[in-house]
Amino acid sequence: MNSWHRTRTIASRELLDFVRDWRTILTMLLIPLFLFPLLFVVLPLVVVGQAEELTATEAQVVVYGTLPTALADALVETNVVLLTPPANSTGVDDDEQNRLVREGSLDLIMGWRLDEEDVYVVHLRYMSTASVSNDARSRVVNAIAEWEESERVRRVEAGGMDANVTLDPVRFDSTSMDLASQSERQGWLLSSFIPLIFATWMVSSAIQPSIDMTAGERERGSLEALLCAPLPRWELLAGKWAAVSTIVLAGVTLQVAGLMFALTYLAGPGLLEMPRMGVAPILLLMVAVVCFSVMVVATELAIAMRSRSVKEAGSALAPLGLLVLVPAIIVQVVNLDGVEGVWFAVPVVNVMLAMRELLLNRVVPFHTVVWLSTTLFYTALALAYAQRQFDREDLVLGAS
Amino acid sequence: MEGEVLASLRSVSKRFGPVVALDAVDLDILHGSSTALIGSNGAGKTTLLRILAGVYRPSEGTAVLGEGNIVDHRRRIGVMTESTGLHVRLTAWENIRFHARLFGVEDGEARRRTERHAGPLGMLGALDRRTEGFSRGMRQKTALMRALVHEPDLLLLDEPTAGLDITSARAVRTLIQSLVEEGRGVVWSTHDLSAATLCDRLVLVHNAKVVANGPLSTLLASSSVADAEALHELHTMEATREFLEGVDVVS
Fold first, then answer.
1. Contacts of A393 in chain B (CB under 8 A)
2. Scanning every residue of chain A, which has its alpha carbon at the shortest distance from the alpha carbon of B72?
3. CATH classification at residue B130
4. Could you give the CA distance from residue A11 to residue A17 in angstroms, rounded to a whole number?
5. For residue B138, with 0-12 CB atoms within 10 Å meaning exposed, 13-18 middle and 19 or more buried, which class applies?
6. Rounded to 5 degrees, what angle do the CA atoms A327, A333, A334 make?
7. What tens digit of pLDDT does each residue of B154-201 get?
8. pLDDT at residue A48 is higher than 90
């Protein structure tokens, strides 16, 4: 039996163990598959549902002053109930009325008066932390804005001017256009969040299997039995690496499948569509994902193997998921058009920047050379570090 | 072949930093013989077994199996660790097959060998069950079958009968005896002195040293004690006394 067969045997055993645990399957495979469909279906449904529910709710607004009839009618149309203040009320400063707003039995206090310069002055008191009160404020502000528009036209025309020309002296030609195609715009939008989601998923999803296959095996005693087998340590590392990478890449593949399904069938043409990418960007994107997963899995296996226990490994690896967020967020704000080449050499940032460019269907030769060579270098470093940990003689006991 | 040296340790020491886990140990394992390794917890038995298994390399001295270094001949060694080290979501057979494949044994042959051992051990009906529900005894027997699947020349067993009922323990002992009769060398680490007396040789380990090594009858004759338990006590006390005499005491 050669190295390939032994490595495959180890990886197969690890994967068999993995698929026998339905909880792990649920966490590692089903969640990535349904993540994007949930984001594109459930989230909008919840948001729209909540907004509709809020709009249908009556808002109790007490008004100090006399509103123009048109404005009052517009407010009533938006489910606003206009209340007259109590006879003994002292005005918008009335403590009792303010208390009612704070308690939620009243949603808004509105003061309306015309000053000496013929300008209407509006005073609003509401609770920004209460949904209905906040929404009542929005309804009132929107209704006033619309009424103000008609009032503005009325006043300009009363002065003998053409309101259309006076109030709208600059206009955009209706044939103005965005030269970016629809798919380019989709790619730009997707490129801003896909690398973030992929990177954080890869880092976080590799943690549990990495710990289970190293520190976990040591705690269960199965590692010692494995070390007695006639195989070099690098084969052990390769087998475990292959198993964790398969799990991580399966998760990423399912995420992509879920994303494509969501974009094609759920998001609708008005929201998002799949970006069109050439063969070279697609291939390079796959290389970037694979390189990144090799690096991440090797690093996590090494750290987990260094740890004395599952608990220690968990404590050492858990912050990694958060750590990767920092470069991931930096990548979101980097301007790709003027980006310096050095960014493509920074660990983690380089792969995510590469993903962004490739999703935009851009292949910049200099950037590609830099991110590819540096990623391979970091990957080699990670593998060398992992090999060093697996070569430790005290592997069976845990490193000190 | 029987009676010839199968494996030997010469002046083997093992250190972990400042800790001496094994100190200048000489030991021969013969073909067709069983050796009981006895000693208190922390005496160095597990380190000795791990050196014999090729998991540890000696800090000093040589560990040889046949003509070469033990580490390079792990294919000829079968190990049953104390914790058994089974994968609980796999069946007993899948655990055994996994190791058989690593040792280059074809699946069909591995299954035949496993069933041959499973019969006497009462495990035939449990081979295709997941090991997560196994009793300690069943796990021990599975680990033993796993250690035997590649037909090793040297079998290293760490507490193979611990946790077994009387019938199972007897079945394991019978199996081990048959392996010895086939010409294999068996090293058996145990706290059970009555079981140890069934072995051809006793090796007493204390404070990282081998303090007695030989057939039980020879050791008893040279020590003027009646049984293995007294022998163990005598040697460990002697070794402790010698150890303390060698220590500079500053009052």
1. 56-57
2. A230
3. 3.40.50.300
4. 10
5. buried
6. 80
7. 999 998 888 788 888 888 888 889 999 999 999 999 877 777 778 889
8. no
Other beta carbons within 10 angstroms of residue A45's beta carbon come to: 10
Q: Could you give the maximum distance between any two Cα atoms of chain A, in Å?
A: 100
Q: How many CA atoms lie within 13 A of A2 on its CB side?
A: 1
Any CB–CB contact under 8 A between B191 and chain A? no
- Please indicate if any CB of chain A lies within 8 Å of the CB of B86: yes
* Closest residue by Cα to residue A349 from A378, A306, A392, A389: A378
CB contacts < 8 A, A to B, total 72
Choose among B51, B55, B78: nearest CA to A236. B55
Q: Which two tokens stand for residue B189?
A: 């680490």
A171 alpha carbon, distance to own chain's centre: 37
Question: Is-contact A196 A328, C-beta < 8 A?
Answer: yes
Q: Give the pLDDT of residue B71.
A: 87
Q: Which CATH number covers residue A130?
A: 3.40.190
Residue with tokens 């973030």: A196
Q: Do strands B60-65 and A80-83 pair parallel, antiparallel, or not at all (unpaired)?
A: unpaired
Residue A197, helix vs strand vs coil: helix
Question: Which range marks the domain in which residue A320 is found?
Answer: 3-45+181-396
State whether ipTM is beyond 0.90: no
Q: Same structural domain for residues A83 and A202?
A: no
